[in-house]
Amino acid sequence: MIIKSLILDNIGLYSQHTEFSLEPKKSSNTPNKPIILIGGRNGAGKTTFLDSIRLALYGKRALGLGIGQKEYHQYLLSKISQNHLDRTSKIELNFIYTEGSIPAEFTVCRSWAIGSDGQLRESLDLRKNGGTVTSVPEQEWENFLLELIPVGISQLFFFDGEKIQDIAEDNNGMLSDAIKNLLGIDLIEKLRLDLHSYLNRNKLNDAGQNDIGVITQRLDHLKSQETTLKNECVQLKFEHQALLKNIEQKRLRFVSEGGAIALKYDQLKNKLTQLNKEINGCKQELTNLANNLLPFLFAPKLISKFMGHLESSSADQSASRHLLEQTLASFQSSSVQKKELWTEDHWENLNQFLKDYFNTQSELSSHPAFSELTKPKQSLAKLIDLEIETKTQVQTLYTHFVYLNQEKEATEFSIARAENAEDSNAYLDELLQKERKLGELDLILNQKDEEYRKLSWDIVKVERSLKSANDAVVDFELQNHKNSLAAKGIKALIDFETALLEQKIIQVRKNFVEIFNSLLRKKKFITDIQIDAKNFNTFLIKKNGQLIEKSALSAGEKQIYAIAMLWALAKTSGRHLPMIVDTPLGRLDREHRDNLMKLYFPHVSHQVIILSTDTEIDDLYVNQLDQFISESYLLEYNHELASTQVLPGYFTDLKRINTEKRIALQQA
Known about the structure:
By secondary structure, this protein is of the alpha/beta class. The protein has 19 helices and 15 strands.
């Protein structure tokens, strides 16, 4: 089987017409390119892609055996985008399937719409090689698809990280279901149970097993309860998912209408008050500086020239006085003094004259306008401070003043937006109401899950009791000729089931050992695997015969174990189906991821569709897989269109395009 294309019209996040071309490219000159790489972040639509393929092929059966028509219709309704005007959804799957060595092209188109009466109507169109399938009646098309690609078999090829995790974490039930689906043992079990019912109806009294009727009624009652409870859980989960989606929409609407800002209205008002206070403080500090030395900063050349004159004049005055004092002292000690022409009065008069002269000069310069110049050194210090400290202080204050005004503008804008959000309280009340309902649903779901687990255990115990009673009936009926064939048929079915199981388990073991060692890149890490046909417990066997429990493996080795088991089961099935894997690498370390890149994805199938995030398959892995990649797509959610868009290429291509755009803008 090769999937050629998938078309989604108004399916969940894909509210627009979306088409994927998925057929691998083939060329005689190049190696096969089986990989279709689809990238997308969480919530972009990867799971919807995988679910859509299942839904196209299996319809209601894609959701499980216990799903009723009502629940199925609710599921289909949940897939119709609320933002789409046309209340119609469609999935179209085109694939090639080989029947008896003859390939045929099939197109499955499953659509549904809400009628004028509010009821949902679903339709299925099945075409083969371009024409409507007529070899099978239209009412049997669903069964035809189920036989073409059985649900149980497809689960070995179409899976996600959750299935890998279930097998990795000691979930023997998952492994049991996988092997039984592989062999079709569920049909054998049904036939065997029918024969048991026949024997019980015809030889109940003779066998003396009256308790079988009581046990059967008890079992029927429990299974009825289980079905009802399971349907309730499914319904609750649907409601839970729908409510989650609705809450997210309400939250986005609440934020877009300014509700988030409205909640901070009081904080914004307080912030504005504080900003105004700080702005006024900045203004006052700038005013104080303006009343002091700040004006001198606007005449830097004049101040520089004045400082030079101040330094030189101060030095000249001091030097003149000092020279005169030295001259007078020299004159006093000279010979003139000896001629007795100068008396003490003369010297006193001369000293007094000089003292009065300098004091007079000082008084002439003591005008208030020149008061600062009486102390030249202090004046010079203030002028230097003007250049260094005052200038820096002004620059700091101005920068802070600009920042505060920008903050004020932004805060005033937010306040205006909050005041205009008239309906924010209504949105908030509705959002809180929805979240309370979600909490109630969570509580109910937990209670229902607990009830379901208890009920499942009760069913297991009653089934064991019924098996014991049925075994007694079989032993008795073997003595009765009329029912001996039925009893022998039961025994033959048990023997056949056991033989078939053992035979297939041998093949699974062989394939698993080869694949597991290959993926671990350890040739003989294990030599065999032991699979118990009764309870499906597994033990790995090393070369020395040592048994290794799965629980002893590392987390990464458990993931490799699960992937190897799925590959081995798929290989044992003999089916050539595409492999579709959704987010498979989330729990793997780098070493084990490297092994999967080299040994698993390029070789696991002729067509491998990988749904991955950019953290799982990054640029390095894209380069490693490049020679095996036929097509790559990127799922990008467009918030304006409220829809996921499919872009050509992968995350690496998007990064390259964004880089080129950024460079082009910078150059422009």
